[in-house]
Amino acid sequence: MVLFNAATKELTAKIVYYGPGLCGKTTNLQHVYDTLPGEGRGKMLSLATQTDRTLFFDFLPIDLGTIRGMKTRVQLYTVPGQVFYDATRKLVLRGADAVVFVADSQAPALESNKESFQNLIANLKEQGTDLAKIPHVIQWNKRDTPNALPVATLDKEINLFGVPTFEACAMRGEGVKETLTGVARLVLKSLAEKYGGGVVEEPPPTVLTGGAPPPPPPPPPAMESSKPLEVEELSAGELLEEIDELPLDATTSAHIPAPAHMPHRSVVEVPIVLDRSLFSGDSPVEIKLKLYIK
To answer: Is the pLDDT of residue 17 over 80?
Structure first.
């Protein structure tokens, strides 16, 4: 579920790396984390257990550009692969906007891959989500192993929905960037279609490489009133100028000078339409508008 932060003008999407135990999920995120420039990455959190490398999640926010004037940020998570931690997998999977399924290409791991993929489908279904309807890609990891199955075999057995796939060797960093870029494109396209503002064709090169930040994107086109996202702010002086320009109704007493002891008052109606997608849950939403006149 996309999170909106009106204060920082950011929307945050959640990508979960899913797969059987020791398939390379954490290795993927570790390579991404090590490759990103220090100013473009958040803190990675990890807990190791006796039976799996990661218990809860690896947390990694990545800047990916803007949609409708809002900066897009992605959080990457992994889930524990062992069946023992299925409850934890459900918790981490909740609210995911996209999924990267990491499969172990080795022949002995085929059944574990298939079981994990079916577990992914079942856990999403339990949360009211259909895997076929959310962005997801598959990574064939450990392609450098001597007993790696042919990609065609893996695709037939696991890729039930015909989504994009990527060959990788996460230990050497091969295919990691391509996998993340592929799922990032799907996420940005999904967000752009859902919230408007156009489709981002190419993620910025700073997703996995350093260097100077890319030039700012062109301003978004004017949006229809049915999907407003930004409210224009007026200074006190601008607002008073608009008040003075309002026409006076001849039937009112606005042309009669006010008594000296009465303060000057003007009422301005400012229509504001808020997109319902900005709010979730049953909690009441309080909106405050403050006008300061000097």
So the answer is: yes
- The closest alpha carbon to 28, from 85, 120, 89, 102, belongs to 102
User: Any idea of the CA torsion for 75, 80, 81, 84, to the nearest 10 degrees?
Assistant: -150
pLDDT of residue 34: 87
Distance CA 172, CA 153 (A): 24
Stretch (H or E) spanning 186 = helix 176-195
What span, in angstroms and rounded, lies between the C-alpha atoms of 18 and 82?
Answer: 11
- Give how far the C-alpha of residue 13 lies from the chain's centroid of Cα atoms, to the nearest Å: 1
State how far the Cα of 91 lies from the Cα of 77, in Å rounded to an integer: 11
Q: How far apart are CA 42 and CA 52, in angstroms?
A: 23
Asked whether the predicted pLDDT for residue 225 surpasses 80, the reply is: no
Q: Is the dihedral of CA 41, 36, 200, 19 positive or negative?
A: negative
pLDDT in tens, 112-171: 999 999 999 999 999 999 999 999 999 999 999 999 999 999 999 999 999 999 999 999
pTM metric for this prediction: 0.65
25/46 Cα distance (integer angstroms): 12
One-letter amino acid at 245 equals E
| DSSP character string of 120-179 | HHHHHHHTT--GGGS-EEEEEE-TTSTTBPPHHHHHHHH-TT---EEE-BGGGTBTHHHH
